[in-house]
Design goal:
The protein has 265 residues and is an all-alpha fold. Helices cover 74% and strands 0% of the residues.
Length: 265
């Protein structure tokens, strides 16, 4: 694979890993506290819904938009998505937002599961089914979005799909083996890195897609071609560190850093 394919695969793999860690926390909390059968039924239903969503969204984007327009639309969406991840990473690094704490999130989910009442001895436990379905589906939609946008824009869906499958399979295998929330995964660092990659690729494809506004309606070319992505990653990293430094200096003295045990996403 070339550098662009490796970059695409890395971004999708890391994003899928992060999202799957969060979904795994919810599934483990429901299964270990209430009903594994109902929890797994919710997971299965969400996977079916995600497959249908992926097929519909991928077909619509691939067939309704010309290449340059596709790059512009997808690049803009990735840029917005990446900036949201970077915004949270900058706030966490500067002490303005609590670090993501998987153990605390697991404890909160367990408390909610226990307060939902007794589990029926027979039939489906709708609480664990719905919570598991919602958790896996919402996290999965983000993975699907990243797979479709990266795969279509780079014209390399096999690499995007393979990277996502590997990320999800790795987290699932480790979660089953440990039977414990994956709190040792450096999730905050991974989110920071994924945000940088999403913002860089989003900028790259957005600019290429601006060619749709020209008479020829052909994609624009970056100087250095795909190597420009590396420069964009560096540029976004430098900008984010500048923002972290500014926020640290401007934080009021009476405002302590956000507590680490505050459940946040």
């Amino acid at each position: 694979m070339d550098a662009a394919a490796w970059g695409l695969g890395t971004a999708v793999f890391l994003a899928s890993t992060v999202e799957m860690v969060e979904a795994m926390t919810i599934v483990m909390a429901m299964g270990m506290t209430r009903s594994w059968r109902s929890t797994l039924a919710g997971v299965a239903a969400s996977l079916v819904a995600l497959a249908a969503f992926t097929a519909a969204a991928g077909y619509a984007l691939a067939t309704w938009l010309p290449e340059a327009a596709l790059q512009l639309v997808i690049g803009a969406l990735l840029l917005i998505f990446g900036m949201q991840w970077l915004r949270k990473a900058v706030l966490r690094s500067s002490g303005r937002k609590a670090m993501h704490d998987e153990d605390q999130i697991y404890a909160d989910e367990v408390e909610q599961a226990r307060s939902a009442g007794a589990v029926a001895p027979q039939g489906l436990d709708w609480f664990s089914f719905v919570v598991s379905f919602k958790g896996v589906f919402l996290e999965g939609v983000e993975v699907v979005f990243i797979v479709i946008t990266f795969g279509l824009s780079a014209d390399n869906m096999p690499v995007a799909i393979m990277a996502a499958v590997l990320g999800c399979a790795l987290v699932t295998a480790v979660g089953i083996a440990l039977r414990h929330p994956l709190s040792r995964v450096p999730e905050n660092t991974l989110k920071y890195g994924v945000g940088l990659l999403l913002a860089a690729f989003g900028t790259f494809w957005s600019v290429e897609g601006l060619g749709i506004l020209q008479p020829g309606r052909q994609s624009l070319e970056w100087p250095g071609a795909d190597l420009a992505i590396i420069a964009l990653v560096v540029a976004w990293f430098v900008l984010s560190r500048v923002l972290v430094a500014v926020l640290r200096r401007t934080r009021p003295a009476s405002s302590p850093p956000a507590p680490a045990n505050q459940p946040v996403r």
